Amino acid sequence: MTTTFETQRAALADVVAIPVTPFAEDGTVDPGTYRALLRRLLDGGITTLTPNGNTGEFYALTPEERRLVTELTVDEAGGRSVILVGVGHDVPTAVASARHARDLGAQMVMVHQPVHPYVSQSGWVDYHRAIAEAVPELGVVPYIRNAQLTGARLAELADACPNVIGVKYAVPDATRFAAFARDAGLERFVWVAGLAEPYAPSYFSAGATGFTSGLVNVAPSVSLNMIEALRSGDYPTAMKVWEQIRRFEELRAANGSANNVTVVKEALASLGLCRREVRPPSRPLPESERAEVAAIAAGWSI
Fold first, then answer.
1. Which of 5, 37, 96, 125 is the most exposed place for a label (fewest CB within 10 A)?
2. Residue 263 lies in a domain
3. Structurally, how many domains does the chain consist of?
4. Alpha helices for the chain (secondary structure H)
5. Considering Cα of 227, then 233, then 234, then 235, what sign does the dihedral take?
């Protein structure tokens, strides 16, 4: 019987939350706080969770910590959400992570953009194919940040691996996204705006039906308000939300997204929900910038 991945596809056409990974005072992953943050997302109406995403500091976690985060997420969600686990690094590591996710009961994996300095387009296909073929039961979602990759290559991958069902597209160019999606097959994949709320309106206008979010850690209702507006084609309302979150996202995006995770954790710390610490190469906000983030978070209806 052919797997249709209907549940997974529906989960991608939504707010795809990227939880932060909180750290304890000694610098280790804090399981209790992580579970509390997940419950807050679930209670707030979020139904798609991505442990080990970039907002979760994927590249700063050890292999053991990545497994722990996956285990905690699947256990805490308890069937209340679809789990999309971030995997990556070398092929054997990514395959092992994907199989671990599958064995725990996760439904999908997101394959992080390869960080190798030398990535050919055919090599990109080979990398993702090796992972997708290792877990045919799981939906597979490539995370695309490479503006050079063509839509034809994604179509080639999906021809070989029908479990490649969605795309997290994170090239900051709405025109390029529109062309890429149509070259790959607009209806063939679920297109997720991978640059979160700031890009969601423009990417939805070109065919996206979901977006990722780190802001959702702070204010789930704000992210849900945006996707409801976009689903109904109410772009004026969506842009009101955009204006509401604009400054927060500008702070995250500044200096090449240097404070992408830092600002989210600072907002959570201001609300008493987790510690502000991040791991290198990220760094906590200086005291002089913390008040603005706290004021933004306090101003949202949470």
1. 96
2. no
3. 1
4. 6-12, 31-43, 63-77, 91-104, 121-134, 151-160, 174-184, 200-205, 220-231, 235-257, 260-270, 287-299
5. positive
Which CATH number characterizes residue 87's domain? 3.20.20.70
Confidence band for 4, pLDDT divided at 50, 70 and 90: confident
CA 196 to chain centre: 8
Give the DSSP H or E segment for 143: strand 139-144
pLDDT of 2 above 80: no
Which of the residues are catalytic? 143, 168
Does pLDDT of 32 surpass 90? yes
Residue 137, burial from CB neighbour count under 10 angstroms (0-12, 13-18, 19+): exposed
∠ Cα 223 163 48 (to 5°): 20
pLDDT tens by residue, 131-177 = 999 999 999 999 999 999 999 999 999 999 999 999 999 999 999 99
- Which domain covers residue 82, as residue numbers? 4-217
Q: How far is CA 173 from CA 120, 177, 178, 195, in A?
A: 21, 6, 9, 10
Q: Are 63 and 89 in contact (CB under 8 A)?
A: no
- The reported pLDDT for the residue numbered 109 is 98
Q: Is residue 227 part of a domain?
A: no
Residue 234 lies in a domain: no
* Interatomic CA distance for residues 229 and 245, integer angstroms: 15
Using left for φ > 0, alpha for ψ between -120 and 50, and beta otherwise, residue 274 falls in beta
DSSP 54: G
Mean pLDDT of the chain: 97
Cross-strand partners of 109: 85, 140
Return the structure tokens found at 226: 């945006």
